[in-house]
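INFO  loader      accepted 1 record
INFO  loader      residues=385
INFO  predictor   begin
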Amino acid sequence: MLGYRAVLVISGHVLNNVAFVAAAAYFYRLSVLILKDSGAAYRASVLFCFNPASVFYSSLYSESLYALFSLGGLFYLFSGARTVAMIMLALSGSARSNGALNAGYICFEALLQAYDAAIQKKRPMALVTGFLRSTFVFLPFFAFQAYGYLNICVHGDTDELRPWCKAKLPLLYSFIQSHYWGVGFLRYFQVKQLPNFLLASPALSLAVYSIVHYTKLLHQLFQSTSIHEQIIAIVDGRLVEAHESSDVATVLKSEISTGLHNKKQGNTEVKKRKSVAASAASAASLDGNTSTGRIVGDNKDECPLLVLPFILHLTFMTFTAFFVMHVQVSTRFLSASPPIYWAASRILAPARGGSCKRWGYFIIVYFVAYILLGSLLFPNFYPFT
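INFO  predictor   done
INFO  writer      dumping tokens
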């Protein structure tokens, strides 16, 4: 009745909007897991739902699927369900090429596990499994490059090979970006591109603020507490969370599938470490933190070690967006990065006033204005992002 094209359009819109709602739910759960602050997590999630690149999460673009698989994968990774996380992060790389960068989170988590194993004088098998899982996340990207090579370079119709086919590492992706899109280091630094730099300046400014803010907090964290204590706290705290969480079945199944622990020895060790972590949790509870919904502490500017890989990821993406890519893409490119919304939610915290309150108004105006601007420019093929 509608026609094939119309059905495709409707299906795409339904799929993307459902995926976005699920991504927002995962964003909230991930934020609670990392920040240990339900209030900040809620504010950040609301900001994510009304982010400046919202038009791409509702239209026929791959942003919603990327956000769903990326945020969902990170939630399961830091919850301990590593197999589920590996699959979802690999799927994020299928939705967008930069999803392959999510392998870095698996490497970070593997390093934590390897350090913990070394302390307990066990074999650091987490490094091996972490490497294998990271490789799996890269598979969709390399699979598509192989697909392009076979179709164009091996089974192509033209007699003369394309230049990228003759390269030592024939990557279709980098050739298209450079040859057809003019993507390259400082190649976009032209006077005529100043309007696009202005268009991207709010997103880049907020990203830089997030990086600087959390870098300062991490520096304070490393000065006040040793890295050893932080890693042990993360591993031990996860045992308590897995024990008390509604997702305990998922976490335990993932642990069994990875074969990281012997059953008898593992039970003894888990009980021992749970008791240590539970004592720390009880101490925090006595300080009145649980009544406010905050687990980390009363200090609004506390920062857990698990924020580190998010900041490293955001730093790399911000650098790439500003110096290498078409800069106006920054608004969309950085839109699924949690630290941006975490930092913005801090500015919008009810207890803050003065300059923070003014910057909070600016953030709200920026988000709303870009939703409206994107809804006008993007459907009419203007270079919004």
